Amino acid sequence: MRTINRLRATAACIGVTMIGSAAGAQDVATAPVAAEDAAPRDAARTNSAGNGEDIVVTGRLGTVNQRKVEASYSITTISDQELRQRAIGNLAEALQQIPGVWADSSAGVGANNTRVRGIPRGGYESLAVYEDGLPIQHDPGINWINVDQFLRIDESYSSIEAVRGGPSSIFAANAPGGLINFIPRRGTPELSGLLKLTTADYGQARADVWIGGPIADDWRFSIGGYYNKDQGVRDPGPTANEGGQGRVIVSKAFARGNLSFGVKYLEDNNFFFDAIPLVRTASGKIRPLTPFNGNDDTLTGPEDGNVVIKTPVGIRDAAFNLFNQTSDLQFTAKGDMRFDDGTTINAGFRYRDSKTNRNARGLNNLSTQAAYLTTNRANALRAFAAQGATDVRFVYSGDGSAYPADANGNGLVGVNTFQSIQNPIKEMIGLVELGHVFETGIGRHDVKLGFYGTTADWAHDRNDGVGITEVRDNARLLDVVAVNAAGQVVGRVTDGGIARYESRFAHSFGGYEDAAVYLSDEWQVTPKLRIDGGFRYEKIWIRGFSEGVRSFNLGDATTLADDNVLYGSGVLTRFDPAFDDKSYTIGANWQFMPNAGVFARYTSSYRLPQIGQYRDNVLPTDVRSQSIDQAEAGVKFQQPWGSLFATVFYNSFQDVQFTNTFIDPTSLLIVQEINYGDVRTIGVELEGSLRPTDWFDVAATATYQDPKFKNYSYNTIASGVTTTTSFDDNRPSSMPKVMASVRPRLTLANGRLRVLGEWRYEGNKFNDDANIVRLPAFSVFNASAELDLTDQVTVQVKGTNLSNSLGLGQGGGAQAVPGVAAGAIILARPIFGRTVSGSLLFKF
């Protein structure tokens, strides 16, 4: 408790320090600064000409202005113009623009997946996601509440900066792979704004708005946000996506500092697109299972809204036709100050209150009707013998009509998990950074000392049910019923499509405190040579309770679905582990020309455990921090007519944690087996552009990586027998060796017409660490055109996946269904099919 109080006091001190710093800045201010100098310290002033003058600070070791071409690490910047021209719609799509990052956007708006430089961590466990220089969520990869649930890209952002590797793990928690910073717009000296209206061929209606300007006494305001409604590319029946966010920032730039206060509120309901069945033919090609269209079909349908999850205390509050419901209220205060002696103070504080209610259906496996009925026949006949049961059969849950043997051209039955998961989290985050520039006899030292702290309250509630459906687009629910000799229904194996209520239960609550201190030094030895280093120490205290589980019979004699319901036992088990670790980095940059240089860096970092690992009834053991060693070297070149940034990297990840979760068939308890292994990766990243004329330019990125498991064995349990399998030299799942993109652009009609093309390639990857299911390589073609009708009005049209590629993002394993398909069936999630959207932008 003393630790918690100290951390909360630290957060309060951070706010006081920041306000005091701004007040001090006001005292020493002599005149308002120019608009460009009033930009927040986290902003990147991106020059579309690519002349090397981009000023970047994300992941910076020092405080003196530094251009992108001078950085001693790999960084990518994306301006608001580029965001708009590429029509980037979510976090995963933004990450697809960055070399070294694999991002799959096939899940929809949120709950997508990423990998960075061969790190085998799913979700956003290796990539810190910031907004305005502060974490959106301290741990971006907490199970079931990934950070992309709380970030929506709209016209209130001015730019993005993304760091891969480098010093990101010194300045940010949970950032061994990198750091991406979304920078919102600030108010402008004169009243200005924009309105963008967007529509698409999947029923989208969206409006973005932003307005900024002066208030009084050099204070400025920025107000922006969006509202969106659409049916989704894979139409589930009910509205797939509906919601929006609003943001207000009030800021003031002083002669020696800045002060800002912001509020953001997000309320969004978005669809989670899950896997569909596909067939791998004898020739190795993949095609959708009949009757699916792989580009725009989904199993989810209107009948999902009829699903309920019964518990011993009533019906679970879960609406399966409302999908992922997210709300997030965020308050931010920031300030910085510069003194004549070279000292700087930067401080920030953020409080957020978020709630997520994730309702989703996931297809687990397929079965023939005969096989499923055979599995359930004996129990059903025994349970309903007194009623005269002689057989079992399938019927549609909605109207009770018979399910045909050849239904939908495949006659199959889908066994699904209906998941209802609630995760509220309240969090306070604060930091204070002190910087000072020392001029010495041997160069200049730019030193920074930082303090970071966070405290959070968290809960996790999960109630799953097993549901039976047909296998087609917008699948309907099925029931298995017991019938007598006359064919009359005398009992139900399932209930409203549910074969088992509460097949998985979890209830945990608690929180965490995290504190870190870091120190860095950028030593400008000569005008061309710079050496930098940094050190971070961090500790996290995780606390809470997890409820045990036992089986209940809800007592409905007319169905078997409620005979074995898992629910809370009322017995709480306390968890209160603490973990700490340290990281350090050292790098050198030789700027042999103003717009060209080389750099090298070594970083030893870590990934601390997170509270989501303690979400189930059986607490994991042998949880530990993961050690990560990284080395990289690169060359940088940038001119108005072109640029090239090339980086070679090597990573060694020790004690990478893998969790095998299963239900013990004897105890019916959820078991989490923790396994550890190593992953070693060597790779190269390329990012370049060429502008041979004023009317044509082309940008490109490419990544080659070769990640391999080392010292990794995976245990599985079947019928009480443990089997050990070595995955050494296997490639971790969801990691293509090759990724590339090329984006040519024509600028015509005196700059009023801009035509942008994009070719994106993703090499083959495995769907599992055992490297059994290989997902083939694919290419995607996108194109957009922007026309300035006037200086204030711009129209845009964009086509996505114009070739209707059936690229597979990720999915589950392979399954053989005898007599049904010519090859194994793969449950995988294809990328979205061809779409066309258009927007109209008004500026003033």
Automatic annotation (TrEMBL):
Name assigned to this protein: TonB-dependent receptor
Membrane topology: Multi-pass membrane protein
Originating species: Sphingomonas arantia
Localization, UniProt: Cell outer membrane
Domain TonB-dependent receptor-like beta-barrel: 321-802
Lineage: Bacteria, Pseudomonadati, Pseudomonadota, Alphaproteobacteria, Sphingomonadales
Alphabetical list of InterPro entries matching this protein: Beta-barrel_TonB, Beta-barrel_TonB_sf, Plug_dom, Plug_dom_sf, TonB-dep_rcpt-like
Keywords: Cell outer membrane, Ion transport, Iron, Iron transport, Membrane, Receptor, Signal, TonB box, Transmembrane, Transmembrane beta strand, Transport
Family listed: Belongs to the TonB-dependent receptor family.
Signal sequence region: 1-25
Domain TonB-dependent receptor plug, residue spans: 68-178
